[in-house]
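Apologies for my clumsy wording, but are you able to produce some protein sequence, whichever is easiest, and the tokens describing how it folds?
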Amino acid sequence: MLCCQTGSSRSLSSSLILKLTFLNSRRVQCDEIWSFCYSKQKNVASAKAAPVGAGDVWTWTSIDADSKLAVSWLVGGRDAGYATEFMNDVAERLTNRVQVTTDGHKAYLEAVEGAFGADVDYAMLVKMYGASDPEHRYSPAVCIGAKQQTVTGDPDPKHISTSYVERQNLTMRMSMRRFTRLTNAFSKKIENHAHAVALHFMHYNFCRIHQTLRVTPAMEAGVTDRVWDMADIVELIEAREAAKDRKRGTYKKRNSK
């Protein structure tokens, strides 16, 4: 089932979200991806006229490991409050018990428990990294191993993985110039950043044919039976704007006396 939903008070999501509900996912992977708005966090204090939302920005992402459908996303901070809102939204979209895998970010522990209770098979994949090389300041530290930690339920060890969601995050960096490192194409306003993320996921879910699936993730998940194009997304935006205009009503000039 599809319905339109506006962003909540905490979430910095697009004004148009095609919400996916009643999903029959069995395995969901979650992760976060870093970016920044206007300036990096360390430069916000000295930045000229930095707007609200300037600094580090995190996008929480989740993906169905089977259909590769992006189940939910949230743009904001990386604290426990955003973790709770994100996992609550993921849980609301699902109809059955799932296996959830996240990285070792501690904010997930209470967030997953609060969203699913005991009705989930939840595990963390905690990666261990070696020392960073000072001669390669922009290269990430080398991953030297990973440890599986069962948190709740009975997750299948074969499917304790964050590979698909991490590959989706790479797709975000490759598809959106705003996420490219060492660039001047970063978002100047947090609202624009959130809109770009929403458009990316709409295109990824409904328009982009997955190379291994030969269909779009939305088709594989049974959400739609056809490949969408950008005109379909534009129609959704126009329909929402028209609905907002009807709600506001037309302006009536006041008679002067």
In short: Residues 1-17 have pLDDT under 50 and may be disordered. The beta strands are 2-5, 17-20, 27-37, 55-64, 70-76, 99-102, 121-129, 143-152. The chain has one domain: 2-131+139-247.
